[in-house]
Write a structure and sequence with these properties.
heterodimer, A: about 110 residues, mainly alpha, 2 helices, about 85% helix, rod-shaped, B: about 160 residues, about 75% helix, elongated
Chain lengths: ~110, ~160
């Protein structure tokens, strides 16, 4: 049986789309919750400075710690994105595997 | 006879090539990021407990001299050593640049916290209001590292 290239391509696309659709809500929930917390924390630092509870140097140190935390959250989002891409690629490859094995009539890959 | 031998040899080579191709493709699951590492998860969880408990204690009892930097030097030495070990381990793991960078950022934040604490001198300490954003930022950093590490457990 010959491989139906168009059908395999469509199945690969659907497999990848399914992975992204499943992953996105979790990534979005994490990003929303962390960005909200980071914004609230930034407001706390601003208030401490405006009310004179911390001096300029202390505010700068607090803001640098805040920047580090924000960068760390962004790195996690980058990692979650890479993991989603990885899973989508593997889901698409799995479709190819099934199609090839079915076409040759035995377990080739 | 010679022709049969040549055909058999050709068939053997073709079958070997097919096996190699099959084995390579079967093992070709793509990995774009490192595998999950349990010691990293345990170490990060331990550091989070230690840093948060340290900050909570400082916020609850901001009275000098008990809360001064001099009284808590050992905490910084111990914690920065723990973060350094974690960084070495994570730099050695393949495809693990993101986590390694997060640990470098954590190390930088601890050094900044030490500077803040030291800057208060011998007579004053950070207030509970000053400590609150620090706790939140450190917890965001720890959560970020753990969220990524746990996501590396594929298929769960």
């Amino acid at each position: 049986m010959a491989l139906d290239v168009a059908a395999v391509a469509e199945q690969m696309l659907q497999a990848s789309k399914g992975v992204f659709a499943g992953k996105w809500p979790k990534v979005k929930a994490y990003a929303e919750s962390e960005f909200k917390k980071l914004a609230e924390t930034l407001a706390m630092i601003e208030k401490l400075r405006l009310t004179g509870q911390i001096n300029e140097e202390e505010a700068a140190l607090q803001l640098q710690i805040q920047k580090n935390a924000t960068r760390s959250v962004l790195l996690t989002l980058k990692g979650l994105g890479l993991l989603a891409v990885e899973e989508a690629i593997n889901a698409a490859l799995s479709v190819v595997k099934k199609a090839v094995n079915s076409a040759v009539g035995f377990t080739l890959i | 006879m010679e022709a049969i031998r040549r055909t058999a040899a050709h068939l053997r080579r073709s079958l070997s090539a097919l096996w190699v191709c099959g084995a390579v493709c079967a093992a070709c699951a793509v990995a774009l990021i490192s595998a999950y590492d349990e010691p990293t998860e345990r170490a990060v969880t331990g550091l989070q407990t230690s840093v948060d408990s340290f900050l909570i204690n400082l916020a609850h009892d901001p009275q000098a001299p008990g809360c001064t930097y001099e009284k808590h030097k050992a905490f910084y030495t111990r914690t920065l050593t723990g973060v350094s070990s974690l960084e070495v381990r994570n730099r050695a793991r393949p495809q693990n640049e993101l986590t390694a960078e997060q640990i470098v950022l954590l190390d930088s934040s601890l050094v900044l916290l030490e500077r803040l604490h030291k800057g208060k001198g011998d007579a004053a300490c950070m207030s509970a209001a000053e400590i609150e954003p620090l706790r939140r930022n450190f917890n965001s950093s720890f959560t970020a590292i753990l969220t990524l590490e746990l996501a590396k457990k594929r298929g769960t």
